[in-house]
Design goal:
single chain, mainly beta, 5% helix, globular, 20 strands, 20-stranded antiparallel beta sheet
Length: 419
């Protein structure tokens, strides 16, 4: 940690001497958490104990921004992770050498146009389509007080040097306007993902086809809608996926059309100290036929939901059979509530039911019913303690008809603060 703080100081000094003509502000911030957790039976059985774990881990994020003016900032974010007792910096001696660069980008504003250039993060369609860090550019034009239009380029993979190396480039291009319409906000989206030859980096993206892919050309067309209705808020996301992929076999290359969709709906409202919320989502899966009908995002998709089936607070692993945060071939329903018991204590409970949209290879679809209980307590100003307990009444798609089937469970606690 001492070495890293020295690095930040050197970075700030470098800016000071490199650009003496400019006065700028150094802005530091960050986030820290330490959590302990126990997972049992996440494989859906209790014979092998293959996914059972009890451990403690720590994450530190440090932020540094050089603010030259309101129109020009240089933003950097760094991350360090360690499991207590491992060699990252969690063992005796504790000297760590692994520092991850999360973000490093220039944030520039020209009149009504903002440009973010470099390694940054973004969220598209609440994470149902994309929620990750990436290298690329986001150019946002503020057309009016009620309309802003971001143009997004995500460099998913670089082909490098050599003959036809550019064929392996994988790029996302998106337009994602935000329109304010009274009590409603509408965000339509169009995203196109293309690679002429993805065979050289097939370990980079999820591949549900079971064969090597060459040319990938996918488009996503959809919208987010958020509406405030009195004390309640309602949201909706709908996405249609089309395009095609070329599948390379030992005999020939086949072109397969992709026709898939995702629908999600949620709502929340407050009644005195009680907050009630719910959501449901459906992502199509592939059954049979010449067209591929499973909703599929090659890389970058991340939507957290249930604690055991969908990562939740303790996002270490998920139960067997679940799509995790890469929402595909699933339908799920949630109802939950939280209550502010005291000024410092908030209690929560959630019920989840999930099943596969299309049966798995064994003809099963039921993932199960999950119960999540949580508590948040303010230990100090800006320091909070979160406790979670989750239990999954596992269905056959989770246990996979094991003779030693068992219900997954999780208990965890986390202390965190940001600054």
């Amino acid at each position: 940690m001492r070495k890293f703080m020295m690095f930040l100081m050197v970075l700030a000094l470098a800016f000071t001497f490199a650009v003496p003509a400019f006065a700028f502000e150094n802005i530091f911030g960050g986030y820290w958490r330490t959590r302990m957790y126990m997972d049992k039976n996440f494989t859906g059985e209790d014979e092998t104990e293959a996914a059972d774990v009890t451990q403690v881990d720590t994450r530190t994020r440090l932020y540094y921004t050089a603010k030259f003016s309101d129109n020009f900032k240089f933003v950097n974010k760094f991350e360090m992770d360690a499991v207590w007792g491992d060699s990252a910096y969690g063992d005796i001696g504790a000297d760590g050498v692994k520092v991850e660069v999360k973000n490093s980008y220039a944030d520039m504003t020209f009149d009504r146009t903002n440009v973010k250039l470099g390694v940054q993060g973004t969220t598209l369609c609440r994470g149902f389509l994309f929620d990750d860090d990436f290298a690329g550019a986001v150019v946002t034009v503020k057309a009016s007080d009620t309309l802003s239009i971001p143009f997004i380029w995500i460099k998913a993979f670089e082909g490098g040097y050599g003959l036809d190396a550019n064929d392996a480039d994988f790029d996302y291009y998106a337009i994602y306007p935000t329109m304010s319409l009274g009590k409603a906000t509408v965000k339509p989206i169009f995203l196109y993902a293309y690679s002429k030859d993805s065979s050289n980096f097939d370990n980079f993206y999820t591949n549900p086809f079971g064969e090597d892919l060459t040319e990938i050309g996918l488009f996503f067309l959809g919208a987010d809608v958020d509406v405030n209705v009195g004390p309640a808020s309602v949201w909706f996301t709908g996405i249609y996926e089309g395009g095609s992929v070329d599948i390379e076999t030992e005999v020939e290359t086949d072109s397969v059309d992709v026709k898939a969709y995702l629908l999600a709906l949620g709502a929340s409202t407050d009644v005195d100290k009680l907050s009630i919320h719910g959501q449901a989502f459906y992502a199509s899966g592939y059954d049979s036929g010449s067209d591929y009908e499973g909703f599929w995002v090659p890389a970058g998709q991340s939507y957290y939901w249930a604690e055991i089936m969908g990562y939740g607070l303790i996002d270490n692993q998920v139960s067997a059979g679940s799509c995790a945060d890469q929402i595909s071939n699933i339908m799920a329903l949630n109802l939950g509530a939280s209550m502010k018991a005291t000024d410092k204590l908030t209690l929560g409970a959630d019920l989840w039911f999930a099943q596969l949209a299309e049966d798995d290879a064994n003809g099963n679809s039921d993932l199960g019913t999950e119960i999540d209980l949580s508590a948040n307590y303010a230990l100090l100003d800006n320091v909070s303690l979160d406790v979670v307990a989750a239990y999954l009444l596992a269905g056959d798609a989770t246990t996979m008809e094991s003779a030693d089937d068992a219900d997954p469970m999780e208990i965890g606690a986390q202390v965190s603060f940001s600054f």
